[in-house]
């Protein structure tokens, strides 16, 4: 398998059954995502974007087809294996942040590390401090979400996704709830994570300006890829 390809999808199909009705949000999709790429997924509601994102993140499983991430066939893993894989290898960035309101920024970022029993408290602290510094919030660690702006909350969410140092970040409308200035700052940060830290990012967005920040944009419609726009970033 090509070591320069992080995500390898082959003939992915997802079928949901509601009684006698079949809903197919994703059908026979084949896709490669190179290491270090910032990929944007666009398309109308119901086009399969979030379904594909959730399959790549191991949150959902394909009905058929193969899905490899980092050389591991996550489509064949058990539930326990996929949970352990996701805790180490994939960070998820949500539109609405999903921060715990009673916890500080530091404590929110630390949450994924609590699953890592081999880490000492000191090791967790160093990783959290490094993640907060990377997103420019090293001075906000003791603030709760209610004491932060929307852009700062999203940065905390990105730090939480980064704290395990995963190769892959998936982002579902990460700028959808932000004003333009905050959104641009988040997009700059995501671009920096690919260029300077080698992270591979797959982002779902409805915003053409957000998609323009990515190195490649794919369009989905009715569960299939319909167009690919390649852009070279200088």
Polypeptide structure, described:
This protein is α/β, with parallel strands linked by helices and 234 residues long. It has a single domain (35-59, 87-230), classed as Rossmann fold (3-Layer(aba) Sandwich). The chain has 7 helices and 10 strands. It has a 6-stranded mixed β-sheet with strand order 6-7-8-3-9-10. A 4-stranded antiparallel β-sheet has the order 2-1-4-5, covered by helices on one side. The longest helix has 18 residues, at 180-197.
List the helices and strands and how they pair.
Blueprint: E1 5-18, E2 21-34, E3 38-42, H1 49-56, E4 64-69, E5 72-73, H2 79-89, E6 90-93, H3 105-110, H4 121-134, H5 150-162, E7 168-172, H6 180-197, E8 200-204, H7 208-212, E9 216-221, E10 224-230
Parallel strand pairs: 3-8, 3-9, 6-7, 7-8
Antiparallel strand pairs: 1-2, 1-4, 4-5, 9-10
Helix pairs in contact: 4-5, 5-6
User: Average pLDDT value?
Assistant: 89
Per CATH, the superfamily is P-loop containing nucleotide triphosphate hydrolases
Shape, principal axes of CA atoms: globular
Catalogue the unreliable spans.
229-234
Named CATH architecture: 3-Layer(aba) Sandwich
What oligomerization state is this entry in? single chain
Radius of gyration: 18 Å
What name is given to the CATH topology? Rossmann fold
Count of structural domains? 1
Q: What is the count of helical runs?
A: 7
Q: What is the structural class?
A: alpha/beta
Please state roughly what percent of the residues sit in beta strands, choosing from under 5%, 5-15%, 15-25%, 25-35%, 35-45% or over 45%: 25-35%
Major sheet size, sense and barrel closure: 6 strands, mixed
* Count of extended strands: 10
> What order do the strands of the largest sheet run in, or round the barrel if closed?
6-7-8-3-9-10
């Amino acid at each position: 398998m090509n070591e320069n390809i992080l995500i390898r999808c082959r003939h992915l199909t997802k079928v949901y059954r509601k009684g006698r009705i079949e809903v197919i949000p994703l059908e026979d999709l084949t896709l490669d995502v190179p290491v270090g790429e910032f990929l944007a997924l666009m398309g109308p509601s119901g086009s399969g974007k979030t379904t594909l994102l959730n399959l790549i993140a191991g949150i959902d499983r394909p009905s058929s087809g193969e899905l490899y991430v980092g050389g591991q066939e996550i489509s064949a893993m058990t539930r326990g294996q996929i949970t352990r894989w996701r805790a180490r290898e994939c960070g998820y960035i949500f539109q609405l942040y999903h921060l715990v309101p009673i916890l500080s920024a530091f404590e929110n970022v630390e949450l994924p590390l609590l699953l890592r029993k081999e880490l000492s408290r000191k090791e967790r602290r160093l990783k959290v401090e490094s993640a907060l510094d990377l997103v420019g919030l090293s001075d906000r660690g003791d603030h709760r979400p209610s004491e932060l702006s929307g852009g700062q909350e999203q940065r905390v969410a990105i730090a939480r996704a980064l704290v395990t140092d995963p190769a892959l970040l998936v982002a579902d409308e990460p700028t959808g709830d932000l004003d333009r200035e905050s959104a641009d700052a988040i997009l700059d940060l995501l671009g920096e994570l690919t260029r300077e830290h080698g992270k591979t990012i797959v982002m779902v967005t409805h915003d053409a300006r957000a998609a323009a920040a990515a190195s490649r944009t794919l369009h989905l419609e009715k569960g299939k890829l319909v167009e690919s726009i390649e852009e070279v970033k200088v």
